[in-house]
Specification:
Strand content: under 5%
Number of strands: 0
Structural class: mainly alpha
Largest sheet: none
Order of helices and strands: HHHHHHHHHHHHHHHHHHHHHHHHHHHH
Distance between the termini: 70 Å
Number of domains: 3
Number of helices: 28
Length: about 750
């Protein structure tokens, strides 16, 4: 009996030990513990130094705490630099407009609006966010008193620096989580996916796999590339190994992006060569394809820590001239274009191998790591960003006018500050419904109210207060530990720090709770009233609007395509082309950002698979238009231009008509009828081109002229197929519920 009890008790103890070990060593526990500890230390230092507003240090701890050291330090650096930037701008405005209220508010509005615009188009979005609301905090609290404003600016800076320093030290010395392992895993996954995608493309070239398999791998590649980009920035900060090889990793990042694009364009040429006997025309195809595949495999192996078994071998994709001469001009051109694109893959994979060999220490430094980085312009015109700015301006001035003219406005200056801090985030993420913020904020407010009214008045000394602060912070961070719960975590911590208002001279007023509730009630009311300025925030309306803009931009770009380049384009025309080209390139991604928020309960007859397939087809259409625009820049033979300019214009007119109908009423087009029409036009065009090339005089450049024209014709054909494919997918969706009014 005793032995039985002892065994049972021992089993229970072991089970409890395993349970508690899993709890205490879980990532959720560690991150919650670190945040809570940093919060207590920051408050302890601030209160012991007699500094006012210690909650600013607490906010710094709450908002820079992320999963890894690198991500936290990056965000902490942006918060610190943004604070300094906001401080400088605020003090400058107070010095320039000490007595001119409206000029002061107008310039402040311009600056915060500029920050809101830059926030949505920059990789350093958090810097612009912090710079905007810190500037508002100092301007509002400092007023016209320059000395008071300077003190507030210095206090804000030192409290923010304190919170950042404390959390950084805690995250470094206590259970540090480096980004390197996650970055290494993401890099390996991306390399394996690109290898699998290349293999799938080879099978597709041999008609051994479906297009859907390639699309699935391509979507996975895009997601993994985005994760790789994010983790690279973090790993450069918290990993010495990655930081020392930063140039090599950035070059690798560029080459991976080029490989993605090259694989996508290579796939576009498959339809034109399916009828050809490729093994006979390209005798070294298997050897060539195997060498490219082997290089991608070696890249994946080196990233996984395995040394390469051999170096890349020189290989060329040779043509069988005897068989090639029996082909028509179009077939010959199709084969040569496909061969040239595969040669581009050979060059890219060799460069990738050299870069990865340099990174992993399996080869010498290569010139490819010296490729200059391509910078993007954050000032490019974007209608969605301008629409967000309009909404932000309405929110900003509504709050300011209420603050100036409504007597005894609950919250007063705090409402203005919160409108700037939260409003700038809400307008830049229109997919996030304001109503979804109410529940997590209410939960955080109720939790903080219970502590503030019933617990804090019973405490004495910082020991008990610190224990309460640690426990409350830990509970919030632990309960909201998932990435998708980050919003609830931030709102919960913000309510805890705001309502408790911990200070050396602590006071308790129920008005603190009611005023805080009134501030957010007013702010949410303003955000809800402006939710449809200037565009509807309903996801289905947003998708329809963006798709309509996409096809209108496609229509404009098709209207600007021509062969006759004798007359130079005006600057305004070039600017409009650049604008619409950017619209076509970016709108499919914007459409994709709205898809998770679609409420299919109201969209009868529509499934998420249908919507995703439509988005994939839209992205393919964007690639084809980009390819056609590039091919239109290729110089064509004069006799071909004169012979077929009218046919090309007729085809453009027909496609423009389809684009216009898709923008206005996507359910009115008949996919089968359009396919027949476009196929007939292409068949006539190909027959006429074949006859013209056969009758053309023998010249040195005749074969090159045929290749150039075929590349253009191939782009025309691929765009026609992509358009027909999109119309077919759009016809499968019932668009009537998408147009119904919903409140």
């Amino acid at each position: 009996m005793i032995a039985t009890v002892r065994e049972k008790l021992g089993a229970d103890v072991q089970a409890f030990a395993r349970l508690t070990s899993g709890f205490f060593l879980s990532p959720q526990f560690k991150e919650a513990f670190k945040t809570a500890l940093a919060m207590v230390i920051a408050y302890a230092i601030s209160l012991s130094m007699g500094w006012d507003k210690p909650l600013w240090a607490g906010f710094a701890v709450a908002f820079v705490s992320l999963a890894t050291v690198g991500q936290s330090i990056n965000k902490a650096a942006m918060r610190m630099v943004g604070t300094l930037m906001g401080m400088v701008v605020a003090l400058s405005l107070i010095a320039l407009f000490p007595q001119d209220r409206w000029a002061f508010i107008a310039i402040l509005s311009i600056y915060t609006t500029f920050c809101a615009y830059m926030m949505s188009g920059s990789r350093n979005a958090y810097f612009w966010h912090v710079s905007a609301f810190v500037c508002v905090i100092i301007c509002v609290n400092g007023g016209a008193d320059a000395a008071n404003a300077f003190q507030i600016a210095m206090l804000r800076t030192q409290q923010t620096g304190l919170g950042i320093l404390v959390y950084s030290l805690v995250s470094i010395f206590l259970w540090p989580v480096s980004s390197y392992e996650s970055f290494k895993a993401a890099t390996g996954e991306l390399a394996v996916t690109q290898l699998e995608l290349y293999r799938a493309c080879l099978r597709r070239l041999q008609q051994q796999t479906s297009k859907e398999d390639i699309m699935e791998l391509s979507a996975r590649e895009i997601q993994q590339k985005a994760r790789f980009d994010q983790l690279l920035a973090a790993a450069e900060t918290d990993s010495y190994v990655v930081h020392e090889l930063s140039n090599q990793w950035r070059s690798y990042q560029q080459q991976v992006a080029k490989l993605m694009k090259t694989l996508a364009w290579w796939r576009e040429s498959f339809a034109e060569v399916h009828s050809l006997d490729l093994p006979q025309l390209l005798p070294s195809l298997d050897k060539f394809a195997g060498e490219v595949e082997r290089r991608l495999q070696l890249v994946a192996d080196m990233l996984a820590g395995q040394p390469p078994e051999s170096s890349p071998q020189n290989v060329q994709l040779q043509l069988e001239r005897t068989t090639l001469s029996r082909l028509s001009h179009f077939e010959r051109s199709a084969l040569i274009v496909t061969r040239n694109r595969m040669a581009g893959l050979e060059e890219l994979t060799r460069t990738l191998f050299e870069i990865v060999a340099d990174i992993t220490g399996n080869g010498p430094a290569c010139e490819a790591t010296k490729v200059p980085l391509v910078a993007s312009s954050p000032l490019s015109l974007d209608l969605d960003r301008l629409g967000s700015l309009l909404r932000y301006v309405v929110v900003f001035w509504s709050v300011w006018l209420a603050y100036l003219y409504v007597q005894d406005l609950p919250g007063g200056s705090t409402l203005v500050i919160m409108a700037s801090a939260i409003g700038i985030v809400v307008v830049n993420t229109p997919q996030l419904a304001v109503a979804k913020l109410i529940l997590p904020l209410t939960n955080g407010l109720l939790f903080a109210t219970v502590l503030y009214i019933f617990v804090m008045p019973t405490l004495s000394g910082f020991q008990s207060l610190g224990l309460l602060l640690f426990a409350a912070t830990f509970v919030i961070c632990y309960l909201y530990s998932e990435p998708r719960q980050q919003l609830g975590r931030l709102l919960g911590l913000a309510m805890l720090l705001s309502v408790t208002s911990i200070n050396n001279q602590q006071s308790y007023h129920f008005l603190t709770v009611t005023t805080t509730a009134m501030i957010f009630a007013q702010l949410f009311l303003i955000l809800l009233l402006t939710a449809h300025i200037p565009f509807s925030s309903h996801p289905e309306r947003a998708v329809r609007r963006l798709v309509g803009r996409f096809f209108r931009s496609c229509d404009y770009l098709m209207g600007t395509m021509r062969w006759d380049r004798s007359h130079p384009e005006k600057r305004m025309h070039r600017w409009r082309q650049a604008f619409h080209a950017r619209e076509v390139a970016t709108l499919p991604t914007k459409v994709g950002s709205w898809l998770p928020f679609l409420d299919l309960h109201y969209l009868r007859g529509t499934t998420m698979d249908q919507v995703k397939m439509q988005l994939t087809s839209l992205q393919s259409l964007a690639y084809r238009i980009q390819l056609l625009r590039e091919e239109c820049q290729t110089k064509q033979a004069d006799f071909l231009v004169q012979e077929f300019a009218r046919d090309f214009r007729n085809w453009l007119t027909q496609v423009q008509s389809c684009f216009q109908q898709m923008a206005a009423a996507p359910d009115t087009l008949d996919g089968m009828k359009m396919r027949t029409l476009l196929d007939d036009k292409l068949l006539q065009l190909e027959e006429r081109v074949q006859e013209a090339l056969n009758k053309a005089p023998e010249t040195v450049n005749r074969e090159q002229d045929a290749i150039n024209f075929y590349r253009l014709l191939g782009a025309i054909r691929s765009l026609s197929e992509a358009l027909v494919d999109y119309v077919g997918k759009a016809a499968a969706i019932d668009w009537t519920p998408w147009q119904e009014d919903r409140f």
